[in-house]
Amino acid sequence: MTLTLPPVPHGETCAGRQSVDATLWPDIARLPRTSALRTAMARRILERAFARMPLRVRTDAGGGLVPEQARDATGSLPTLILHDPEGFYRRIGANGLIGFGESYMAGEWDSHDLVATLTVIARHVDDLVPRALRRLRGAWVRRRPSSDLNTIDGARENIQRHYDLSNDLFATFLDPTLTYSSAVFASFPATSAHLPAAQHRKIDRLLDLAGTRPGSSLLEIGTGWGELAIRAATRGARVRTITLSHEQRELALRRIADAGVADRVTVELCDYRRVQGRYDAVVSVEMIEAVGAEYWPAYFDALRRLLAPGGRAALQAITMPHQQMLNTARTHTWISKYVFPGGLIPSREAIARESGDAGLRIVHDTGYGDHYAETLRLWRERFLQQSAAVAALGFDHAFRRMWEFYLAYSEAGFRSHYLDVRQLVLTGAEHPGREV
Predict the structure, then answer these.
(1) Domain 148-428: assigned CATH number
(2) Is the pTM of this model over 0.85?
């Protein structure tokens, strides 16, 4: 059967790695050095894996792999289109899943539905490598560089590499609340017009879980652009919020002043390990993912130390299955290389163990990963619509493909249920409070 494919509609097509700035993107502009054997092995392993997935794989010319289950007349299966099969398999042979993402940045492959393609792969990621070869995993993956460790200095550099890119960049795809974490929607499907209310619904749930009321003293670990602090101060709380991002702090201060709550909010450049005092509530939204496993004990010790007697800590955290977390804990991934250096998504088991060791007790735990998938879909669509504006800010083609891949890759993680996002409440073990 011959299938005629329409033009790839999702984002910008790429002229190939020859158009990539080698000064900015050396590992994208050039193919890695690796043996012909590793390339051939990667090709063989992936061809066998793809053939078992509900996924169509084709070359530009219409040849290539067509798995048996993909041979239908509807064309409804997601399609991975190889523009440069040799480059694609060579990168994966050299660098595994890092190479898979770099190959997309280089324009060596595309998809008519990038999220659907990545969702299929995410659902089968544990089956990509045959069981007999998994014990050789160490020969195929790279260890995280020691420079990415979240020491006091390292954490500041890691945060700034992402969050100090440009406030204007984030404004191109976030809603007017500038909230960069999962929203909670009233219903699906949602539109961009629903995002502000959905973000406020999320924030209000966290503030309720933390028991925030007039006169409460609240510490926020991870300011973002200030929306939660504004919302808490509007309730009458006294808010101290900390960040390691200069860019975020400057804009958060302006937004807090514009909201008329500057007298109830302080915004500080401060590491959570250096905060002193006791607070009725501590709120931290999707910050634990940037802490790093080596520093989870310090993070939970800080939460315990900073909570006043009877206080509550409300966290929003992305989670992944425990075994997958163990597999990736020391692995250098595409996300850690290009998007969130030093980060690691925890498992629920890791959160329970580390918080328990710190003398904290989890009294509430609710997940809503489908809401994150919807949030990411809206961000990704907005980002693609604003491609010209992103380019005008000075972000080149490789960066734009990187960011598109990051948003799609994350959305696929939630759609496949490989990832989840949870709201948790922790209290001191001697002050368990009421379970909610």
Answers:
(1) 3.40.50.150
(2) yes
